[in-house]
Amino acid sequence: YLNSIAHLPGKLVLAGDFNLHMENAHDPDVRKFQQLLQQYDLMQHIDSKTHVSGGILDLVLTRNCDKNSLEIGNVVITQTPTTSDHFLLTFSCMFSHHLKTEQVSTSGRKINDIDLKSFKEDIMNSELGNPDSLTD
């Protein structure tokens, strides 16, 4: 997932339950995750426990580069009177909004122009028309 979004331009915030005990620097999974953060130049902003049993499991990640970094502020971690074993984590960050005009081109099919009789014949003559040839 990181590979698919880390290369996209612009600001980035990833937040949620990563289910890793980030406070345990000797854990092999934490080490691998920290290597991923370095590889994708991401910064982890949470340094207090986020779980009733202790541990930093809920994270906020942003880009670490100057151009697309975000300042994360007002981090508040609160135990709530709910049944969740995770604390409520809130934070603030500023996004600038740039309105610009984009030209969008789309393509599609004119569904109303389809010859239904030919379409049905094509399906019946294909593998879809023979359910015994289909596999899971």
Roughly what fraction of the amino acids lie in strands? 15-25%
| Element order: H for helix, E for strand | HEHEEEEH
Strand order of the main beta sheet, please? 1-3-2
Radius of gyration: 24 Å
Low-confidence stretches: none
Beginning-to-end CA distance, first to last residue: 26 Å
Largest beta sheet, briefly?
3 strands, antiparallel
Global geometry: elongated
What is the total tally of β strands? Answer: 5
Give the structure's gist in a few sentences.
The chain is an alpha+beta fold. It has helices at 2-6, 28-39, 116-125; strands at residues 13-17, 42-44, 58-63, 72-78, 88-93. The chain has a 3-stranded antiparallel β-sheet, with helices on one face. A two-stranded antiparallel ribbon has the order 4-5.
What are its keywords?
single chain, about 20% helix, alpha+beta, 3 helices, three-stranded antiparallel β-sheet, two-stranded antiparallel sheet, about 140 residues, 5 strands
